[in-house]
Design goal:
Blueprint lengths: L7 H4 L8 E17 L3 E15 L9 H14 L4 H13 L7 E15 L6 E15 L2 E15 L1 H18 L8 H8 L11 E12 L8 H12 L9 H13 L4 H13 L4 E10 L8 E6 L9
Antiparallel strand pairs: 1-2, 2-3, 3-4, 4-5, 5-6, 6-7, 7-8
Length: 308
Amino acid sequence: MPNSMPDVANQTQAQTEGTLDWVGMSNIEVPMMVAASDASERPVAAHVEAFVNLKDPKAKGIHMSRLYLLLDQLSTEGELSHASLKQLLRDFIESHQDISDRAFIKFDFDYHLRRESLISRKKGWKAYPVSLTGRYDEGHLNLELAVDVPYSSTCPCSAALARQLIQEAFDAKFAEQEHIDKATIHQWLGTTEGIVATPHSQRSTAQVKVALSDSVEEFPIVALIDAIEDALKTPVQAAVKREDEQEFARLNGQNLMFCEDASRRLQHRLNQMPIFEDFWVRVNHYESLHAHDAVSVTTKGVKGGYSS
């Protein structure tokens, strides 16, 4: 009869006693079907963190394989939804019922969407970094959705300075002419001499975290991305023809933004979405003028919620 295999976690006690906030694994790679509120199930390649607390000060350790196998079962037999995530965390605790009473999990993945260009309506893929985080504590689930959305921002100050230079170039060009016909002005405006300066723009990123209400069944990933892009008006593009590039330039010119403006736009939009009980926004403008970045942070202002 073969000898029984040793089980150090069960058969020995901690050399130094003490409770631990979280114990588990990070960077677990699993494929997962995500139930999103755009009425589709979408496969993603997720990197996962899975933890339980260790409330027994004498316990040697947790059973990490139990967490992994429960996660693997969800990956192969189910889909990631509000209900399945809550059940997964309950199962984490149940599998460690004598030593744990809290559980935590985080899924990081790129969420790919087909996005239509501005004028030509050509389509292309855009990948949005997404995080789904769940924490189960004292019978209550805290669920968070986070997404990074890239966009373009054009500096209002730079635009004003560029306009001034164009006005000065116009005065210098036509200083000796009392009357100028429309065709002459039209032709001049189409030259590099006419548009002597342009404002500086830069790629920017809105990092947004929202606390989801208990009424949410499927994850509103697309709704959140759409709300962010609609509020900012200048999301980066995928497939682009010349007419799309021209429209993108127009949108940048009509939506001049400091980082403060972008934060306030997002704050206003998210305040109108009751499915988000709380939110945290960080706007990053990766300056083309400076070697440093311009940053603004705002929250919903919920007592006991997100802090800046």
